[in-house]
Design brief:
Elements: H1 11-35, H2 40-55, H3 61-68, H4 72-84, E1 88-92, E2 100-104, H5 108-127, H6 132-163
Antiparallel strand pairs: 1-2
Helix pairs in contact: 2-4, 3-4
Length: about 170
C-alpha cells in the first residue's frame, strides 16, 4: 500500500501541532473524567490499571504510585474513590499480606468504552489512512517522545528537590 501525499512540514510545525494536541488532550481528559464521575488524577490512574489489566500484568498499589508519580498515601485515596465507583477492586496477595493488587472491575470496561468509544473509532479511521510503515514511524516517535518527556519530568523533579520549596510553596 502506497501512502497518500502529505503536505511538507518542518520539525517546528510538528512540535507546534503536538503542543496543540497535548493542550486539547488535557481539556479532553477533564471532560472525560467528568463524564465518568472522576477527577483527572483518578482517570489517569484508572488508565494505568486498564493498561496492566489488558496486558495481563499484575499491578500493585505501590507500582501504581510510581507510575502516577504520586505518594502511596495519595494512591490510597485514588483507589478508595475508584473502588467506591466500581472501576477497580483490590485483591490481597496470597503470599505477602502487605501487598495489594489493583484489578479492573469487570463492569468498568463497558462504562469506559461508552465514553472513549467514539474517540477511539475516529482514531482508528485516522490511522487507517496511513501505511504500515507510516504507522510504525508514528508509534516509534510516540514511544521515544514519551521516554524524552519522562526523562525531562524526572530531571525537573530532581532539580526541584535539590533547590527546596519554591516561594509559592512556602
Amino acid at each position: 500500500m502506497e501512502g497518500k501525499a502529505r503536505p511538507e512540514a518542518t520539525a517546528e510545525q510538528a512540535l507546534y501541532e503536538m503542543d496543540r494536541l497535548i493542550a486539547l488532550a488535557q481539556f479532553g481528559q477533564q471532560d472525560i473524567a467528568g463524564r465518568l464521575g472522576l477527577n483527572v488524577t483518578d482517570l489517569t490512574c484508572l488508565g494505568f490499571v486498564i493498561e496492566a489489566s489488558l496486558a495481563g500484568e499484575p499491578l500493585g498499589a505501590s507500582d501504581l504510585a510510581a507510575r502516577a508519580r504520586l505518594s502511596t498515601g495519595a494512591v490510597t485515596g485514588v483507589l478508595n474513590r475508584l473502588e467506591k465507583s466500581r472501576f477497580i477492586r483490590r485483591e490481597s496477595d496470597l503470599t505477602d499480606r502487605r501487598r495489594v493488587w489493583v484489578v479492573m472491575d469487570e463492569s468498568a470496561q463497558a462504562r469506559i468504552l461508552e465514553v472513549y468509544g467514539p474517540f477511539y473509532e475516529r482514531l482508528r479511521l485516522l490511522v487507517s489512512d496511513f501505511t504500515r510503515d507510516e504507522v510504525a514511524v508514528l508509534a516509534d516517535w510516540f514511544a521515544k517522545a514519551r521516554t524524552a518527556m519522562q526523562k525531562s519530568l524526572d530531571d525537573m523533579r530532581d532539580a526541584a528537590r535539590a533547590e527546596g520549596p519554591s516561594p509559592a510553596q512556602d
